Automatic annotation (TrEMBL), chain B:
This is Copper transport protein ATOX1. One of its GO terms (molecular function) is metal ion binding. Residues 3-67 form the HMA domain. The lineage of its organism: Eukaryota, Metazoa, Echinodermata, Eleutherozoa, Asterozoa. It comes from Acanthaster planci. Belongs to the ATX1 family. Homodimer. Interacts with ATP7B. Interacts with ATP7A. Interacts (via dimer form) with SLC31A1 (via C-terminal domain); this interaction improves ATOX1 stability and controls intracellular Cu(I) levels. The keyword Chaperone applies. The keyword Ion transport applies. GO terms for cellular component: cytosol. InterPro entries: Copper_transport_ATOX1-like, Heavy-metal-associated_CS, HMA_dom, HMA_dom_sf. GO terms for biological process: copper ion transport. Binds and deliver cytosolic copper to the copper ATPase proteins. May be important in cellular antioxidant defense. Pfam families: HMA (PF00403).
Length: 76, 73
């Protein structure tokens, strides 16, 4: 299938447990192929199928979990 | 509006976790009268008119292990 990659900026993670929560939950979303979250860089890199989900839905998913999530300004 | 105090155990390990719980509860706005997040005891007490099931759903959104303990007076 087709895949798109987006790096979402995430504020509010302070330990590896936060990282695991996000990876665990977002990886179950429909259309998500792969997610890797970096605590140091405060970002989540997500590979997804644009026909099944959108970057905005992924951002909302992280936001719903109680973190500040922002898409890169240049993302279309 | 009649509110009840519900107690939950939430598997929180750091301030990021308790901060996340605080934020999802804040998003409920008026539907939650008062809440207290206790990181050390891994306990969350919520005073709300919402049912324990609705509150449990909200807490589970954080992706953390959550169990309902019961009501508190």
């Amino acid at each position: 299938g087709s895949r798109v990659s987006v790096t979402i900026h995430v504020e509010g993670m302070t330990c590896s447990s936060c990282v695991h929560s996000i990876e665990g939950r977002i990886s179950t979303f429909d259309g998500v192929h792969n997610i890797s979250v970096s605590l140091d860089k405060k970002e989540a890199r997500v590979q997804f199928d644009p026909r099944r989900t959108t970057a905005e839905q992924l951002r909302e998913g992280i936001e719903d979990m109680g973190f500040d999530a922002t898409l890169p300004t240049n993302f279309v | 509006m009649a509110t009840q105090k519900h107690v939950f155990n939430v598997e929180m390990t750091c301030e990021g976790c308790s901060g996340a719980v605080t934020r999802v509860l804040n998003k409920l706005g008026d539907k939650v009268a008062k809440f207290d997040v206790d990181l050390a005891q891994k306990k969350v007490v919520i005073e709300s008119a919402l049912s324990s099931d609705e509150l449990l759903e909200t807490l589970k959104k954080t992706g953390k292990e959550t169990t309902y303990v019961g009501q508190e007076n």
